Structures are given as structure tokens and as C-alpha cells.
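Pasting as-is:
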Amino acid sequence: MWVYPITFYTFLVKDGDLDGHMDLTTKTCTCREFDVDQLLCAHVLACIRLRGFSFPDYCSPYYTSVFLVAAYSGKIHPVGQQNEWLVPLDIASKIVRPPVGRRPLRRPRKNRIPSFGE
């Protein structure tokens, strides 16, 4: 992966088939993997490393330990015994049966079968 600076915060990234234009000020990349609420793509990591910036400064705050602690800081109410639950009659009257058929007796396939256009 080759990174060519255009300005201090914009870059041209050559990555084989997937070349892209990266802008750190608007937090956008043409590969569309670097948006506001997502993790950093490889292009962004290369640009941040080139400039010597800190990686956590460009991640979404949702991936910080502060947000993780805040997500689990609320109260968790127990659901109680199953015979005390208030279930609507239309849901309680439905019977869920196991799927019809059996699994094949061989190991599941690990390799993907390519489609016609690949």
C-alpha cells in the first residue's frame, strides 16, 4: 500500500485494485469503509501512521472504554419465574416445531463456491 500526500490531511492511497482518496478532516475514504460510526479502514490507518497521529483520535467514541462502561452501567431487572410471565394468547398458542429434515452426515463445506460472474 502506497500513500501519497496531497495536502496535510488529504491523501491518495494506492492499494492494488482499490485505490482511494482519503480525507482526515471530513473522515471520509472512497472505499466507503471509513464513516463516522465505524472502525478505521486500512487506508486511514496508513495515512494516520504516515503523519504520526494517534489512532484512537480518529475512531468513533462508541469504541472507547468509557462508552462500554456507560452501556452496562444501568440497572438490569430480573425477568422472574416463567410461570409469572405475561404472554399474549396469540403468542402462547403457537407451537414451534424443530425443522424438517436432517443435516448431511459429512463435514460442512469450508470453501465458498464462486458465482457465475466471478
